[in-house]
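Reference record:
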Amino acid sequence: MGRNGKYQHQHQRKRQGLRRTNLGRRIRLVYLKLLRLQDKPEVVAKGLAVGVFTGCFPFFGVQSLLAFLLATISRGSKVAALAATWISNPLTSVPLYIFNYKIGKLLLGTEDTELPPLNIESFAAFKELGSTFAITLLTGSFVVGMIAGVITYFYALVILERLHDRAIRRRSVRRKHSE
């Protein structure tokens, strides 16, 4: 619809509603921090890719350290890497790890292991499943992480280069107007 149409008002309310939530604020904060990074788009894209890769692994608490180390080695943005590890968070970790396990099972041809019910005691039950379960999960996590990391790198690079070019154009327009 038009500029003052019904659709625009609904869209504005949805955006305002998302901003008011804690999750919406956090997402926006991370987004703004990523936009304000002074690194080259390639450096930020590497950091995001590394963070997504490490975020696919079930190493809570170690993901950030691993992302930081890999970002340092790959000369990627450490801030972007740390932010991207949040691909696995309390809302996404269980479905992500189940998916990773199924991918690992498909690749390794391991027998179907009945997973314990998902609750607070789950981690103790997962320990009892043994090394076959761990290897299957880690294999799936590695493959999913590599694919997701590569996809993230290329998409982020395209988006970040566009944003970078837009920022350069804006600065040049501002300079022309200030002279």
Remarks:
- The chain has two domains: 1-36, 40-178.
- The radius of gyration is 21 Å.
- The chain has a mean pLDDT of 78.
